[in-house]
Amino acid sequence: xxIKEKKALKRESIIQTALQLFSLNGFHKTTIPDIAxxxxxxxGNLYNYFSSKDILAKEIIxxxxxxxxxxxxxxNMLDISSEEKIKxxxxxxxxxxxxxxxxxxxxxxxxxxNREVFKDGCEGTMCVSGFITEIMIFFxxxxxxxxxxxxxFFSAFGLFMGYLGxxxxxxxxxxxxxxxxxxxxxxxxxxxxxxxx
Length: 197
Prior knowledge:
By secondary structure, this protein is mainly α. It has helices at about 5-25, 30-40, 45-50, 55-75, 80-100, 100-110, 130-145, 155-170, 185-195.
């Protein structure tokens, strides 16, 4: 394995470990030494990859946005209706909340709750553009096909993500009486009913 590949793998393992610790313990309670200890590496070596905790936090939100954006891109490329795409997006979001909860938790509990950390370099939607772009494409395609109502993007996005984020929050607080994936059909229908032309 080449040095460049080894560095890329180490960088990704730092991101994954920090993502888990930030999501579990919170941004301010997690220190660089905590992350280094979990990885069994020196603090100095970790700083060779990320020069500060804030920079690491920004890289994590970019990473999680790209991962989710890549999955939604696959859905966008399918030759199916907007209604079916909504269901597939809900399925993948709920599956991620179940299998990789730290990714969603990071967005909800770190990114949205610590905006001061993301002020410089993550203005607007800059650090979540991978995800936002694919959702924009989904809406544009739905409006172009006549299946979805033409409306302000952020109104539609807020509605869509409000449903998903609300359900994931309820799951995280252990308030849902059923497994989150059992709500897929109802949530998909509600989102489609609210967005359709």
